[in-house]
Amino acid sequence: MEELTKHTEEGLSEFPHVILNQARLHDFFLDEMYKSSLHPHYNHKLDGLERDPHGQRLKATVAHQSSENGEQTRVIRARYVVGCDGARSSVRKSLGLELRGDSAHAAWGSADLIVDSNFPDLRFKCIIRSKTAGTLQIIPREGGSMIRIYVEMDRLEADERVAQRKFTLDDLIRAAQRIFSPYTFDVKECPWWSIYEIGQRLTDRFDNRSDTEMPTAFICGDACHTHSPKAGQGMNVSMQDGLNLGWKLAHVLTGVADPAILQTYSEERQACAKDLIDFDHELAHVFSGKNNIDPKYFEDFFKQAGRYMAGVAVQYGPSLITASETDCRPDLATGFPIGKRLHSEEVLRVADARRIHLGHTIPADACWRIVVFAGTNGHAQHTAGYSLCQWLGESNTSPVIRHNPKDHDIDSVVDVKAVFSASHADVELNSLPSILWPRKGRYGLRDYEKVFCDRWTTAKYPMPSIYDTRGISREHGCVLVVRPDQHVSAVFGLDQRDAIAQFFDRFLLVQS
């Protein structure tokens, strides 16, 4: 039984591995839209997209079908257009882009089923490989009764498409029953099913950037990359596309950042999709292999897939918004690799002595974060960490001051937090630089949630120190720069003020 759970690595994430229905996530997104007075417009299709010859905007021709008025067409002019319109994307076609790749020439079935079975591990995520009948994967669904299965159906000829075979639900169930034999597999209900062919395809770029013009139209998700669903990455990677692009668009539209940051979307996400498709090629081979693959190989692949699903497998390379290792000090925080998602760890909030994950203090609000790991006694005056925080909150050369719009809260663009290697009882909030205890909001109230330490006053309640688990020197400390999508942009020394300022100057605009 122990072997069945090892595909989730110890320490991979503070969150458990869960399966969420895509429809539920869709409802979550709709709820958030409604809170912002945004509403989707249904029954619309894009008929054409082109640059407006009389300006810098795009011109989209949109048709709306209604029962009252039939089809009506209108033209919408926009600064930016984002196509999240699937594998048959109209936006992609309008940009002259094409999905390129190949097919594994194999038909697979996928279904959500309520099943009566005497198979004891039906509620485990597992793979069943039959000597003669193929391979099947089980993913338990919510509710305790439903499962999602992926089942190998048949090989396809080189010029054959899955639609030509006219597979039915009965074909899918019989294939699953052959693999399950001698265990029973009695399907009581099937809310959803589909037959698909494995294909890995990718566009050359994810935007309309040219040698002379900045990108203004973008594509996300299946519009620019497709792969098999067995890696569990269709929705996960597509949402990460949207997050990566979303905060950059927000920065540009609000005048916070130079439009040049939009070029990093295609650079980062196309490379990420390429890595995933390479992994998916190998995964498809593993699933379709015939009896000559060690089960340990499966386990290792599940672990790698888990890294993708946890969001920690992606590592963005050096760019306008991500420093190269030669430009900063990655040796000062070896547990926070540059370009990777912030690997959260527990800290102790000084204001209320509450244990909390550092990553949970960073909401998705399009803000940059500077996390000052001030080291031992860093809360004392005249130390490097204390002096750095003073500079961040008071100097006109500080990125916090330099790039913050007038009449906005001090942390509206760059938010500063500090983690001290000390007991919470040794740190007094009212003795720290004002940037760590700022007044904010309508009433100018103090923000108590920017200062943390790595241990309790007493050893009675032990907790891991983030300095130890993330390879941070207590003697030297460091400065961690975290992007709005929680990827690590840079690691600097406490004495590298000029380097910190120059890094933000690369992409953030100076505010008057």
How much of the sequence lies in strands comes to: 25-35%
Q: How many β-strand runs?
A: 20
End-to-end span in angstroms? 62 Å
Evaluate the radius of gyration. 26 Å
> In this structure, how is the largest beta sheet organized?
7 strands, mixed
Strand order of the largest sheet: 13-12-18-15-14-19-20
Shape: globular
What structural class results from the helix and strand content?
alpha+beta
Stretches where pLDDT falls below 50 for ≥5 residues? 1-5
What does the average pLDDT come to?
Answer: 88
Q: Give the helix level as a range of percent.
A: 10-25%
What is the number of helical segments per DSSP (H or I, 4+ residues)?
11
Which tags fit this structure?
512 residues; alpha+beta; seven-stranded mixed sheet; six-stranded antiparallel sheet; 20 strands; 27% strand; disordered N terminus
Describe this structure in words.
β16 and β17 (445-446) form a beta hairpin. The N and C termini lie far apart (62 Å). This protein has a seven-stranded mixed sheet, covered by helices on one side. It has a six-stranded antiparallel sheet with strand order 6-7-8-5-9-11, sandwiched between helices. It has a three-stranded antiparallel sheet with strand order 1-2-3. With 512 residues, the protein is α+β, with helices and mostly antiparallel strands. The protein is built from eleven helices and 20 strands. The protein is 24% helix and 27% strand. The radius of gyration is 26 Å and the shape is globular.
